[in-house]
Amino acid sequence: MTQDLEMKDRSTPSNSVSSAVPSTLQHLKEIASLIETGSYSKEVRRIARAVRLTIALRRKLTASVISSFLDYVLTTGSEAHAKLSAYIPKDEDHEMEVDAATSAIQTPAKHLLPEIEIYCYLLVLLFLIDQKRYNEAKACSSASIVLLKNLNRRTVDVIASRLYFYYSYSYELTGDLAEIRGNLLALHRIATLRHDELGQETLLNLLLRNYLHYNLYDQAEKLRSKAPRFEAHSNQQFCRYLFYLGKIRTIQLEYTDAKESLLQAARKAPVAARGFRIQCNKWAVIVRLLLGEIPERTVFMQRGMEKALRPYFELTNAVRIGDLELFRNIADKFATTFSTDRTHNLIVRLRHNVIRTGLRNISISYSRISLADVAKKLRLNSANPVADAESIVSKAIRDGAIDARLDHANGWMVSKETGDIYSTNEPQLAFNSRIAFCLNMHNEAVRALRFPPNTHKEKESAEKRRERQQQEQELAKHIAEEDDDEF
Asked: What residue stretches are annotated with the PCI domain (predicted)?
């Protein structure tokens, strides 16, 4: 008896470990079954659900689990099995535990579907990237892309779009993004010919990211303008497209369109995508400052973004005050951050806005002021500050930034009396922009509505109509009886 109890106690730890490991393996088997069902019934939504479930299991993936899953779904000795198993390190202890659990649960069944094979590539690629084995991830992703080029099945498109993304991501992590640009263009052409719209969306965004990574904004705009456009299939890809479009428009000085794209990308992005929303807000803040607007304080106080947006908050404060010296100090203080965010060139453009804001404050405060005092207040550090102040003031008057005139004889800037803003078109323009925003949001909401298929074609038969009317009469009678009982 005592020996039996001791043997049971000793066997308990190994049983707990082996029962804990197969849970992830069992989930992967269920996902494989889901992909198989979706492939046979040609239901893409099932395969999309399988990919979402895989991303949720990503942190639980281990070498032993993936190795056992490959043995379960792929034929041992096949080309795909040999290639993928080479990327997985061998762990004998875990392998024995998982094998024992697998044989106890279910006898292995081999799947020969191309969807399953492509899914195995995705699973191994996720594992390699998480383990920071980037060179092996590059080799694995390249092998999967070669396989995808020969597959023309709509049920593969969802998994293929994920593989395209991680293919580009693995090369970006190793700094070799330029090597795959030609391959991405070829893949985009293939996806267009096959009418793979999800693949086109993903590959277009990857190409735009590739061009923008090397500051090739003209090439990115040419590609974007020539690429076919259609209704967005993925919200994430649409958000990325809007972000890249906003960056291109900003560099091309089209600030109004850039602001709309960046704010829309930040609004549509999922709450969990905090890093993406931070980047959108950084660029949106710069664009609004370049437009002469001052972003609200609440933009910088969003949950989880206060620290990341702190440099841009201080920069906004300097632009709002119009203090050129403070602007220089902040630009020098956070130069590393701005260079990392690739917004340094845009911040150089803001110097003119800071001077203009300071000049506007001066024109409001003084009815007449000498150009020497203007140069002193603007803190112009140059060889001839008075001449610089004169040219700055004359340009601001010509652009309509200030309502004043120059007295060249006496060296003065004479401000005119400020009129009533409600006598101008400013309120009308403000209301027009708000109404246009609301109308656009309403149109997007209407386009996003989903209806059951063929509801407008189905007609109710006479028998069904009589049954429905009878049920409605019985329900009304029942409600009336309940009301009588209450009284």
From this structure: 239-420
